[in-house]
Amino acid sequence: MKRTSNILIVAALAGGALLSACGNKGAHNRKPGKIYAPDMYESRAYEFYSGRLAGLKPVEGTVKRGAMLPYHLKAEDTAQANAVRNPLVLDEAGIKEGKRLYDIYCGVCHGQKLDGNGPLYKGGDGPYPAAPASFIAGKVLGYSEGRIFHVITHGYNVMGSYASQLDIEQRWKVVAYIKNIQGGGKAPEPAAAPAADSAATAPAAAPAVAAAQ
Fold first, then answer.
1. What range does the record give for the signal peptide (predicted)?
2. What is the rounded CA–CA span in Å between residue 186 and residue 103?
3. Ramachandran region of residue 28, left (φ > 0), alpha (ψ -120 to 50) or beta?
4. 60 pLDDT tier (thresholds 50, 70, 90)
5. Cα–Cα distance for residue pair 113/23, rounded to 1 Å
């Protein structure tokens, strides 16, 4: 009998605790506990390269490992841009990458065929009223690779800059693709054999020279 009474008491206490928990569920959600470590719960926002992070700013005049040299010409330096040459020597894969980037960022205006008739113009039926420049006819056909890169970097007339969408190397790849098409689509010449290869053949020729003597 005593054992039965103890079981009933424990069951009653457990049931009361359960009902209490269910009844206070909403109140518990409305009043969360105090945050023990607020800096970990809500991280502070920092302006990069300012305050305590100012010492992490790259040294002025340095270039990130693997990155190309920065482009220093201003938008008004068109004459100097005409003389700039593409620093990249691209194979067929590099030209294909230039085409991929062109199709994404340039084709919508200048057309997949580089004829200035992209979807935004669409022969005058598109949403853009003015015909974009053609790369295969007109004055742009005579632009140097440096001039095209300069326009992509700074924009020209109603065309904005694409420097934020394409990094320096990507811009040069787009230029290489455009000039490749302007040149008749000829694949780039293969890179010259490294000097080490010619040096390696020298010992083979030496015995013949010695025999001739």
1. none
2. 19
3. alpha
4. confident
5. 70
Domains located in the chain, CATH noted: 78-182 (1.10.760.10)
Closest among 182, 185, 194 to 110, alpha carbons compared: 182
As a dihedral over the C-alpha atoms of residue 123, residue 126, residue 131, residue 136, rounded to 10 degrees, the angle is -60
SS3 call for 159? strand
Give the DSSP H or E segment for 27.
Answer: helix 25-30
Asked whether 123 and 131 are in contact (CB, 8 A), the reply is no
Placement of tokens 């003015």 in the chain: 130
Q: Are 114 and 134 in contact (CB under 8 A)?
A: yes
pLDDT in tens, 10-37: 566 665 555 555 555 555 556 667 777 7
Structure tokens at 15: 């049931």
Q: Which amino acid makes up residue 202?
A: A
Beta bridge partners of 156: 159
Per-residue model confidence (pLDDT) at position 37 = 72
Per the CB < 8 A criterion, the answer to whether 98 and 90 are in contact is: yes
pLDDT of residue 213: 34
Split at pLDDT 50, 70, 90, the class of 206 is very low
